[in-house]
Amino acid sequence: MLLDGPSTATDLADRLGHAPAGVRRSLAMLVDRGLVQATDRPPFGPAPAPRRGRPSLVYSLTPAGRASFSQGYDDLALHALRFLDRSQGDDAVRAFARERAERLLASRPLPTRDAARVAPLIAEAFTEAGYAATVEAPGELGPTIQICQHTCPVVDAAAEFPALCEEETAAMSRVMGRHVMRLATLAKGDGVCTTVIPLEPTEVPASLDRKVRT
Fold it and tell me: How many other C-beta atoms can be found within 10 angstroms of the C-beta atom of residue 143?
């Protein structure tokens, strides 16, 4: 679930090669421990199509479940940002966040601004940086696509310093030539970071229109 996102017991059983009944027992234990949650629909993306019979539960990690994975990098980032904030102030924190976001996106050549072609490249860059990112269908949001980050290596740092998330979003707007929107973030307690990207170019606000350094 960390890499593949919300899944039904049947989906997990197919991937693991186990019987669905055994997987459901394991999931029930994880739910009892507060590491996994079971819902009628995924925490992001389109609702499942109507079907006869009892709908399958969708299982996803809770914040406690994600925190059970190693987050040593997050602890280091949090301490470094606190020091930077104390010694040089908020402007220095934002400048760091901006450069970090630009370097992350510069790790992939983006020869076009075609959202459908660029979004998978951005998702690859995020995944290599530890975000387990995927490109998802837009659901009912019109001619858009979504980049979903299923985990975040700096989630605690981002919760205390929102500039990390804000500058990632701003960098995506600049390289894609359109105004993208973050609808949810792990740092705010949501089940996934969701960035909605219009398929057609839109005006990028002047505050975001800074050239990405490569």
Answer: 9
